[in-house]
């Protein structure tokens, strides 16, 4: 008798792909300037249904499609889509469409006797070729107007797009941009001094209940490269803060063990502190020590470094930096309004600039020093999103967050032709790979899937997809169909562009999700699974 909680291939893989297809159909309609909407009823209560055209929001609202095994496929697409949104801010529907195209074409061949393992290798080799070709197609953008044009379709407000473009240009790739709820119906923004680093909190236990981002107001900041293995190492800093009436403490260290984390949590739970948080010290080696000194200068404190034989037991209040605000997520932390002296920051920058010339033959280290100089001189911005209703504000906030992420990615890594043209232009590079057998089939499957985003864009706008794809292929790289004007245009001249990281992020996520599905032979579901609304 078959086990109702276990489903093996080929039925298992087919169920997985059916679920992926059902989720993708919900997201596909949101592609392009003529996007359709999806109406979702609330989970509880009698509120009217939400009318959504954001693929990221739609994916997050979905918690199942009604069949245990198909749910696995749907949630796989949901997860990879949300990861794309978090990483690059856009490209969610594109990732879903590419994933579905890959698995459906591959499943047909596997059902006829093909082997999924070499097909997987062929797809992954094709991915490498496509990514290299996308990089070759990319161009840099520098002007705020170019950034604004790039994100205008995301925020759907030309003036707001211009403002975001100016903010991204002003703060640069390393400055912090925080998007928050506003109090009124207008969206406002302001520039602040601040900077961020690509390291997050050391433990989620330090977050308050319901938090995903820790925000510390007027924190004291302990900066050290000591590994905090014992609670006693933190006692001097905690006691100094408590004696001075300081209610927030941010610890920046390479490692914080459980005993030290427990002490921080205990102090917060006993209401001795409003907020305590520990973030991992950025980088490693000499660069880490230098960055910690930079943070100390920015905040007006002192870094406690092992190689200088400095001890945590000697920490006093004056050694702890200060800032207007600090924030920490699972992957980043930032400091806004550091209280360091301007003269000290200028002197620190002056110290670092000669190092760039010394490192002339070491490009990697030279770029790291340039990054540090940028952070020392960096700005931050607050965007407070306003709207007429809370639901409108939440939707606009997601759009603004996506626009900021996409704009920063484009400013940092460049742009490629939009409208699906960049992916379509990769087809010759993928087809030219010297592969044989099922690996060649895998590459061919990817080559055909690369046209799917353009096909979906055309279908949503009411055009015949095959005609549009054939027309773009015949005209060559850089040409796309302007779905609003109804004419063929050069994407570069018309400004129909996509951030390179959005396109590569969507493609990488699609291939990752597809190969997982194609090589999954057995599905197992729990008898009474717990339900989560988080991706």
Protein architecture, described:
The protein is of the alpha+beta class and 535 residues long. Helices cover 51% and strands 16% of the residues. The chain contains 20 helices and 18 strands. The strands form five sheets. Strands 4, 5, 6, 7, 8, 9, 10, 11, 12 and 13 form a ten-stranded mixed beta sheet that branches. A two-stranded antiparallel sheet has the order 1-18. Strands 2-3 form a two-stranded antiparallel sheet. The two termini are 34 Å apart.
Structural descriptors:
single chain, globular, alpha+beta, 51% helix
Instruction: Identify the overall geometry.
Output: globular
**Global Rg:** 25 Å
Q: What do the pLDDT scores average to?
A: 88
Could you name the ranges where pLDDT drops below 50 across 5 or more consecutive residues? none
Largest sheet: 10 strands, mixed
The number of distinct β-strands equals 18
Structural class: alpha+beta
Helix content: 40-55%
| β-strand amount | 15-25%
How far is the first residue's CA from the last residue's CA? 34 Å
Helix count equals 20
Brief summary:
This protein is of the alpha+beta class and 535 residues long. The protein has helices at residues 11-28, 55-61, 68-88, 92-111, 116-137, 144-155, 158-171, 235-244, 258-269, 285-299, 342-358, 363-376, 390-413, 421-425, 427-431, 437-449, 452-460, 465-475, 491-494, 500-518; strands spanning 6-8, 38-40, 50-52, 176-181, 188-197, 214-217, 220-224, 248-253, 275-280, 303-304, 321-328, 333-338, 379-385, 415-417, 479-482, 487-490, 497-499, 522-524.
Helices, strands, pairings?
Layout (H helix, E strand, L loop, with lengths): L5 E3 L2 H18 L9 E3 L9 E3 L2 H7 L6 H21 L3 H20 L4 H22 L6 H12 L2 H14 L4 E6 L6 E10 L16 E4 L2 E5 L10 H10 L3 E6 L4 H12 L5 E6 L4 H15 L3 E2 L16 E8 L4 E6 L3 H17 L4 H14 L2 E7 L4 H24 L1 E3 L3 H5 L1 H5 L5 H13 L2 H9 L4 H11 L3 E4 L4 E4 H4 L2 E3 H19 L3 E3 L11
Helix pairs in contact: 1-2, 1-3, 1-4, 2-3, 3-4, 3-13, 3-20, 4-16, 4-20, 5-16, 5-20, 6-7, 6-13, 7-13, 10-12, 11-12, 17-18
């Amino acid at each position: 008798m078959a086990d109702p909680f276990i489903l093996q291939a080929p039925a298992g893989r087919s169920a997985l792909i059916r679920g992926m297809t059902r989720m993708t159909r919900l997201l596909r309609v949101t592609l392009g300037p003529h996007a359709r909407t999806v109406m979702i009823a609330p989970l509880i209560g009698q509120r009217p249904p939400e009318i959504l055209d954001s693929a990221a929001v739609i994916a997050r609202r979905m918690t199942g499609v009604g069949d245990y095994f198909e749910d696995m496929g749907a949630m796989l697409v949901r997860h990879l889509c949300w990861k794309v949104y978090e990483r690059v801010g856009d490209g969610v529907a594109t990732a879903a469409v590419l994933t579905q195209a890959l698995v459906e074409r591959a499943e047909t061949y596997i059902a006829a006797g093909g082997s999924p393992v070499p097909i997987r290798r062929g797809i992954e080799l094709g991915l490498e070729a496509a990514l290299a070709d996308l990089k070759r197609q990319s161009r840099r953008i520098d002007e705020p107007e170019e950034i604004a044009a790039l994100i205008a379709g995301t925020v759907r407000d030309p003036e707001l797009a211009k403002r975001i473009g100016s903010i991204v240009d002003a703060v640069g790739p390393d400055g912090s941009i925080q998007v928050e709820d506003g109090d009124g119906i207008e969206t406002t923004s302001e520039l602040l001094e601040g900077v961020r680093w690509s390291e997050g909190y050391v433990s989620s236990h330090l977050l308050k209940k319901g938090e995903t981002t820790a925000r510390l107001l007027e924190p004291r900041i302990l900066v050290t490269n000591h590994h905090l293995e014992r609670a006693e190492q933190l006692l001097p800093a905690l006691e100094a803060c408590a004696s001075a009436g300081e209610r927030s403490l941010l610890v920046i260290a390479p490692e914080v063990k459980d005993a030290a984390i427990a002490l921080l949590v205990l102090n917060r739970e006993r209401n001795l502190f409003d907020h305590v948080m520990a973030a991992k010290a950025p980088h490693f080696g000499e660069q880490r020590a230098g960055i910690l000194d930079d943070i100390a200068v920015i905040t007006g404190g002192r870094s406690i470094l092992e190689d200088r034989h400095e001890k945590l037991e000697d920490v006093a209040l004056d050694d702890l930096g200060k800032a207007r605000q600090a924030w920490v997520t699972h992957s980043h932390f930032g400091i806004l309004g550091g209280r360091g002296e301007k003269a000290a920051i200028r002197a620190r920058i002056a110290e670092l600039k000669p190092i760039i010339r010394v490192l002339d033959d070491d490009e990697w280290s030279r770029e790291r020093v340039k990054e540090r100089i940028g952070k020392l001189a960096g700005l931050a911005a607050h965007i407070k999103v306003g709207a007429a209703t809370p639901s409108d504000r939440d939707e606009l906030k997601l759009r603004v967050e996506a626009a900021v992420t996409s704009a920063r990615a484009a400013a940092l890594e460049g742009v490629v032709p939009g409208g699906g043209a960049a992916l379509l232009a990769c087809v010759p590079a993928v087809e030219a790979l010297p592969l044989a057998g099922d690996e060649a089939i895998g590459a061919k499957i990817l080559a055909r899937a690369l046209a799917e985003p353009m096909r979906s864009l055309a279908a949503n706008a009411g055009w015949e997809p095959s005609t549009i794809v054939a027309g773009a292929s015949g005209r060559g790289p850089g040409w796309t169909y302007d779905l609003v004007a109804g004419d063929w245009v050069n994407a570069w001249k018309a400004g129909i562009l996509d951030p390179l990281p959005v396109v590569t992020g969507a493609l990488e996520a699609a291939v990752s999700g597809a190969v997982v599905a194609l090589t999954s032979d057995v599905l197992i579901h729990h008898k009474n699974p717990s339900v989560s609304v988080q991706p």
